[in-house]
Amino acid sequence: MRTVWNLDREFIKLNQDMVMTQMAIHDAHNMIPYLEMRRNELLAGITEGFDQYFLKNKSPDDIHISVLTNTMANLKS
């Protein structure tokens, strides 16, 4: 009888673990849109910062971007 009781306890623990895992996955799934929004806001801020830097410190003639090689050759300080 004790073996049956121990087995029943193990099934209850397993069920609780499965429920907790399911809840964690569900919570993570609900967080994805928020995380994507924050990522986009951070990227927009970084892009804006670079734009402001180049507008203040560089003229268009100082920047030669090679589209073919994806490099910024001859970037003058």
Describe what you observe in this structure:
This protein has one domain (2-73). The chain is built from one helix and two strands, in the order H-E-E. It has one helix at 2-57, and strands at 64-66, 71-73. Strand 1 and strand 2 (71-73) form a beta hairpin.
Write a short abstract of this structure.
With 77 residues, the chain is mostly helical.
List keywords for this structure.
77 residues, mainly alpha, two-stranded antiparallel ribbon
Low-confidence stretches: none
Number of domains: 1
Task: Categorize the overall geometry.
Answer: rod-shaped
Mean of all residue-level pLDDT scores: 80
What's the Cα radius of gyration?
28 Å
Strand order of the largest sheet: 1-2
Structural class: mainly alpha
Tally of alpha and pi helices: 1
Sheet with the most strands? 2 strands, antiparallel
H-E order: HEE
The number of strands is 2
Topology, element by element:
Blueprint: H1 2-57, E1 64-66, E2 71-73
